[in-house]
Amino acid sequence: MSNKGSRSSGTSRSSTGRPSGSGSMRESAATEQLRSLHARPRQRKMEESDEAKLIVPRLAKRAYHLPGNGWCRDWFQYMMNNHPLLGICCHHRLHPLKIGQRTIIFIGSIASGLAITNIVFLWFSFDREQDMNDVLFQLTILPNSTAIHTSYQSVEVTRGTAVLWTLGSMTHSIFDLSIWYISACSCCRPGGICAAIGCLRHCGSYLVVGVVMVVVAIATLVVVWRASEESREQYEEEMEEMGVDDDVAVPRFGEIRGVSSFSFLMNYAIEVTLALLVYYPLFGTVLFS
């Protein structure tokens, strides 16, 4: 009887042991699931950090090619990451230049182009020996064509246009590229020549803000100055048409007669629109190819 009792008690222990063992297995499985859940974000962060180390330096250098991309994807990423206007909202999520920095760069680019254009005009307005409307040479396009009006068969390149196309465009491009690289600060990022002092890469953004503020102030000054010169020229033309030779009421510096004195801003707006939507994609594709 005692043997049977002991066997039955052993059986009960083994039967009670099974549930405890299955419970521990369930606990271990739940623990492993929790560990895997916690490990996934860490793994994603590690993958993102590895991707950032590989892509961010290339994006900061305006690279034409990114790893794993074909020609079409590279062209698309180049335009979306480097276009002055589209890049504000369509840039890569890992790009070092964010919306705020790109907006400041865009404002600086518009202001610098406006300042350069008006400085060239003021330069010729004070240099009475040279007129910016003097024709340097003429380009004839399809001279024998009857489908094109004669006024559109040739293009006259004036002295002012030549200065804007050469010195003005070059200065504008140098300014745009300079504030881009200063703000992105690719040299202080991993892989750059100054990677050891990477903590200074944020200083470029603050420097660009100061530079853009100065450029905007200069652009505002020259715009008002040119509007004043436009008012003076309008007054002189009116007096000449009326046959009156009186300089008593000539507008002084800073005195603007009306909105018509700012008509040159409309021409500049058209110029910027063509540059952003036509010329930049066109020449960007040529350089990309």
Q: How would you describe what is shown here?
A:
The chain has 289 residues and is mostly helical. 67% of the residues lie in helices and 4% in strands. The protein contains seven helices and two strands, in the order ααααββααα. It has helices at residues 2-60, 71-82, 87-90, 99-126, 159-184, 203-242, 264-288, and strands at residues 135-140, 154-158. A two-stranded antiparallel ribbon has the order 1-2. Helix 4 (99-126) packs antiparallel against helix 5, helix 4 (99-126) runs parallel beside helix 6 and helix 5 packs antiparallel against helix 6. The radius of gyration is 34 Å and the shape is elongated. The N and C termini lie far apart (96 Å). Mean pLDDT is 76; it is low at 1-19.
Q: On the 0-100 scale, what is the average pLDDT? A: 76
DSSP, total strands: 2
Q: Give start-end ranges of low-pLDDT stretches.
A: 1-19
- Secondary structure tally, helices: 7
Query: Strand order, biggest sheet?
Result: 1-2
Computed structural class: mainly alpha
The best one-word shape is elongated
Along the chain, the helix and strand elements come as HHHHEEHHH
Query: What percentage of amino acids are in beta strands?
Result: under 5%
Radius of gyration: 34 Å
Q: Summarize the main sheet.
A: 2 strands, antiparallel
Oligomer: single chain
Beginning-to-end CA distance, first to last residue: 96 Å
Query: Can you give the helix content as a percent range?
Result: 55-70%
